[in-house]
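FIELD: query
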Amino acid sequence: NDKWWGEKPLLERITFRQMEASAARAAFKNGEIDSVGASSLTAYKDVEGTADSEVRRGQRLFAGGLNMSSFRLPVEMRKAIFAAVDRKALADIRFQGLNWSEELPGSMLLMPFSEYYQDNFSKATEGVEAGKVLEEAGYKKDGDFYKKDGKNAKFAVTTFGDDPVSGAMAQTLVQQMKSAGIECTIDNQPDANFADIMGNKQFDMTFSGFTVGSDGTLATSQYYLKDNNDGEGSDEIDKLIAEMGKIQDATERNKKANEIELKHMKEFAMMGTIFNGPDIFVVKKTLANWGAALFGSPRLNPHMWSNIGWIKE
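FIELD: result
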């Protein structure tokens, strides 16, 4: 951009390549690319020890893992899934072998280290039983699964790419749901289909989520306003969101954000939190200012793009 008004960048061009995860790791080991994500066990073990590389890790600014924001499932199914999932078992699979542990997160809005954080998922699901939710919605247990109008209580979890860890999480979820009387199937898609499937909401549930910022205000509107969810939500919650936007004090505003999220989780069960997780990159040692960076990431701080370059020998 010849009209760029900020600091002159060190590089003329930064190129990103979209590849299947396994192909990207092979390209990194062959010296075709300079950095690769390694936040899963499979990826980490595959590229660990690559010549002239180093591991850069930190906290990932992410929340999610139980994304049903397509609203293809009826609300009683979403509530039952929230109640039936064993989040710790899924998180343990996700982090196995990564030398990473964390408390189960409970918010899509804020990281657990935030002064405003509140565990809304645990509060929303406390005392809720999946079977009771389905029975109140007219389902009856018939064999292994609950049924209504001759059809099983059923959904698909969509996974992307060839990562065995994602596959193991999906298989575990299938068993967890079966124990609760819910039939779960696995829909595995190529990595290249991620944008289309997510953008067009062609999924029942995915293990995906979103970046977390330092303030819950904007995310509350993004996630929980009816207009941003094809009309799914309530006028009451929309009113609370409007009230939140008028609060100047950050503490009180984020308190209101938590109140809204808790109410939405209880009533609509749209997005649940399984993990935050680590941000792990394996990069060439001489690549400067690229890797785990919390709020200093170039995605969050556009000035950081100017600093990416190569260490002078």
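FIELD: remark
The two ends are 28 Å apart (CA to CA).
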